[in-house]
Amino acid sequence: MRIEELDTPVPVVDLDIVEHNLKKMQAYCDSHGLNLRPHIKTHKIPAFAHRQVELGAKGITCQKLGEAEVMIDAGLDDVLISYPLVGATKADRLAALSRRAKLRVGVDSGLAAQTVAAAARASNAQIGVLVEFDSGNKRTGVVSVDEALNLAIQIEKSPGLRFDGLMTYPSSEATAEFVAEAQHRFSKAGIKIGVVSGGGTPNAWQAHKIAGLTEVRVGTYIYQDRATVAAGAADFDECALHLHATVISCPTADRAVIDAGSKSLSSDRVDPAAGSGYGLIRGYEDAVIERLNEEHGVVDVSRCSRKPQVGERVRILPNHVCVVSNLHDEIALSRGGILLDTKRVEARGKTR
Amino acid sequence: MRIEELDTPVPVVDLDIVEHNLKKMQAYCDSHGLNLRPHIKTHKIPAFAHRQVELGAKGITCQKLGEAEVMIDAGLDDVLISYPLVGATKADRLAALSRRAKLRVGVDSGLAAQTVAAAARASNAQIGVLVEFDSGNKRTGVVSVDEALNLAIQIEKSPGLRFDGLMTYPSSEATAEFVAEAQHRFSKAGIKIGVVSGGGTPNAWQAHKIAGLTEVRVGTYIYQDRATVAAGAADFDECALHLHATVISCPTADRAVIDAGSKSLSSDRVDPAAGSGYGLIRGYEDAVIERLNEEHGVVDVSRCSRKPQVGERVRILPNHVCVVSNLHDEIALSRGGILLDTKRVEARGKTR
Asked: Measuring CA to CA, how many Å separate A91 from each of A102, A114, B315?
């Protein structure tokens, strides 16, 4: 079958571009002495995770236990769960995994640390812990070195837990300031900060400028997307995943409707400076996907000199590729325009 | 297991409320002589579709062929596909289904009509066709009675196709005007408009005021959500699906973070008049889910007199329940606060 014959909408991934992106990030990290620990939340496919490790990644990162379960089932054996786990059910699942792989977990509260401790107790395994701090993103993460130190002391005292260092997302200039103060204070308290883990594809190529950083967690770099191109982290040629869609209706001269809506592209926007609409139609750069319903994308083609026709297939660069990947059971794999195979997105929908 | 012990995030559906909502809409349609043809895109579960038919629905509506395949596999036998199908692959799949169930398809272009005709030819079955027109939504649908009539004439001439009538979404006051003119013009051309199918839960209770309407396609009414409550189509007590989530972090007094982000709640917004944020936390109505990342919901709790704590479970009414249902492999079923079972969302992710 040719790519053009695939039923739409369908995400199509170019493996040459994937390979280029994986090698480029690995080479960058190697050249700066940074450990790369890719986040699998973007691709959610064990085969890609294995390739990342083969190329030099020091283990992988998962956001959810369900993702870690899929990856460990597939033979990945060094996993950071960069997400606070809270409660008895999470502790049970973490305990089961800690018997099968080398685990590290990010925590930002006493209760999250207790959850990891309960897992370590139940499994008789040692689990590494990173204390998450906030570099200005105002999401999770302790907001002071005092809190980080208190949490590190609690972790050091907990049987089965090993304090491995600090974690933040995304890493930025503020990261270095926090880390410098933490190194001073932790050192006085006799606690070693082994790892300082940062992340985020948009500013990944500046990671080497952040003093103290030892590890880079990036996910989007494997596929790239409209947002990372807008951030200057990638070129359009480095975008590996496009959603192939079909124009299903052109009710007026200025309006085309595609068979991809929020259930295929997600409702995620990009910064207005990065462009308008819910994705970029390659070859119709003046078209604007101005509205998504669940199964319809309404496209303003008034500014297009050449306009797409009913039945025509289009290739869309998603605004945010991680959420697109999560909406599809399968992706199609291609190389240089040739369709090779389809691949199940095995950790798709692992929300827990 | 108790509901409180379910791992989070998890959508929990109250079956008493589902039953109430299904019966209420059926009674409304019955009392006004309207045929109810529920849209399964909201629940995506054959058991609920069967219940809708048992209660009096005249068949079901699907948006995508993949949804129709799941429903027909499960024994549903009268399906409207309210979506333009374009191309050879769609024709093949439609042909296969037309051998197994009574089908009707909405079209708004010559190419879409040709696709249905190709399916009818391949299967030797007769397929009903509705011509979709635009009632002001500016999505799909022909924009003039002239176009509708020309398309109906093309359909009447196509072997295997049966022109059944007109379709629009959402139905509104503009629907009646279009239908009145169409009835006049079609009648002069000797073409009978058997069905006039309208839809949309937000204005469903006004359907009887639209002269000429014969059929109501509604989906959201089974669960209801924040948007349909805001539209006045439902009360909060009629919302059947809540996403149960856990507070995983409270980095500052004014910020709580929940374990549900855009991969659990979607990035869909509601009209600002309907409220702010990405869902309503029941019992914390002054909290605002102000930002979603993929796995994090960042909640502004500054206006809450009582504030949620790390480890606490919360119930979230989604802005737009159809996309939430589509993000989860399973829902939990409950009745009066008692957990009964879990149910696979069988037509989830059927984007094609």
From this structure: 16, 9, 22
